[in-house]
Description:
Layout: H1 2-7, H2 17-25, H3 37-58, H4 75-82, H5 84-117, H6 120-135, H7 138-151, H8 158-181, H9 186-194, H10 199-228, H11 231-236, H12 244-253, H13 258-291
Helix pairs in contact: 3-13, 4-13, 5-6, 5-8, 5-10, 8-10, 9-10, 10-13
Amino acid sequence: MSAVLTDEPPLGAALPSSLRRGLRRSRPHQFDRPRFLVVMSLFTLALLFIPVLVVLLYSFNGTNSLVQLSGFSLHWYSAALSNAGIRSSLWTSLEVALVTTAVSAVLGTMLAFGLERGSRRLVQVSDSALVARLVAPETATAIALLLLFTQVGIGLTRTAVIAGHVALCLPFVAVVIRSRVAGLNREVEDAAMDLGCTRLGAMRLVALPLLWPAIAGASMLAFVLSFDDFVTSYFISGVGVTPLPVLIYSMLRFGVTPAVNAIGVMMMILTMAVIALAVPLLALGRRRLAVNPPDQVP
């Protein structure tokens, strides 16, 4: 047997020399990079960020023009901040976003636990409803909320806007938190109940401390969605309740000034700051679950 094996030619020896050279060049760790990958990546980035840079640039324009740049000035920022209507709309948006964030965080955490640990039949129905809500057009949802509030006698007040924003943000918060609830080790909660905790006590003392990065990140996502929302706010905001995106739309209808650019830049800065806080919190939640995987008891 050994003689036969040693007498056999090496693998690939019968192949032509040109083909053997091609096989050596095409090693497993090598691959053909897609053509124009760098060009398409740069084009995509330019398409995303050039409008933002244009808004940022013209917010410092020294004249009342959106076509020609003339000097550098902070006049439009001071004009935006000194406008009583803009300050009132900004405070309305902040108040609505903060209340929406708090309510969505509480209800979203409860919904995440229910979806992950409820009975299978109810979970299937709830999952279908949650997915339907996520993919439903926001315009149709906003019109449905408007009809609902007017039919039941609820005025288009700030409370109605908050309720509409909670309906908008709740599915996103529940999806984010549920992905973390799925990674929890239930044996830890069972051990806490064996030591005398109630079920709610085990959730408060064991589960929620492990979930707080995901809850905080999902809450910041809800804040951004609520603060920047226009469609739902436009349909269900009544007289005297004007969130900032609705005010910007009304300003565009009567003529655009660089003050609108200044408002947009300030909104982007606030939104990016919240997102910059949310991303590390979500990463922290993933690291904590990686340290204590669900199949191991800490």
